[in-house]
Amino acid sequence: MTSSPSPHHFTALENETWSRLFERQHHSRLHQIHPMFNQGLKALQISEHCVPDLDTVNARLMNLTGYKGVWVKGHEEPKSFFVMLKNGEFPIGNFIRDPANLAYTPEPDVFHDLYGHLPFLANTDYANFMRAFGEVASPFIHQPEICRQFERLFWFALEFSLIKTPEGIRVLGAGLASSTAETRFALSNEPKVHTFNLEKIRTLEFRIDEFQKQIFLIEQLSDLYQCLDAFKKGIQ
Ligand SMILES: [Fe+2]
User: Fold this and answer.
1) How far is the CA of 42 from the centre of ligand 1 (A)?
2) Which domains are assigned to the chain?
3) What spacing in Å lies between the alpha carbon of 113 and ligand 1's midpoint?
4) SS (H, E, C) 39-77
5) pTM above 0.85, yes or no
6) Does 1 have pLDDT greater than 50?
7) pLDDT, mean of residues 28-51
8) What is the C-alpha to C-alpha distance for residues 118 and 40, in angstroms, rounded to an integer?
């Protein structure tokens, strides 16, 4: 793990950026994202007012599932990322994007990480799965080809996935949950939507600099939570 930087003091302008981003997600939060996300936001008391105090959020999160957010400088390399997941830690970028371009951040920032990921991690089953993901992936962090397969699984299952619910198709991926524009795109007719298929995910390359044109639709949460054994058995 890279050394954890000191907590960043967010300025008034940066807190305003948080508020504007939070407000932009209003419709998607209520109508387009899996309900566990809103439940997690409420449980962690993450609100529009300002960038939340991470220690306060962590006290609530650890009480619920044992997970905690840890400040990092930006994108966390897979080698340290998977070990962090195993240890119940989730990296939180200690900066917020440029207010001149709210829809884009070059690296995961506090809005993507804290707003997008931590609410899901307030759910016990989801958090247990995330920890198991880290446990299964960590032994392979020095084998780049295999590590890449786990990166693809994380990307397509936990950042940009959709899921069926009784109310209709909803966003499950945190990358979508933290981007109203990409949520709209993901739920439109534009991307190619595949059934959740581990062997397709294993070899499918992705780009981080454009909306995802290939998305996986998970039938039910148990399909996600039970996928690790099969994924590990199929390692190529
Ligand atoms: Fe993410």
Assistant:
1) 20
2) 12-233 (1.10.800.10)
3) 6
4) HHHHHHCCCCCCCCCHHHHHHHHHHHHCCEEEEECCCCC
5) yes
6) no
7) 97
8) 8
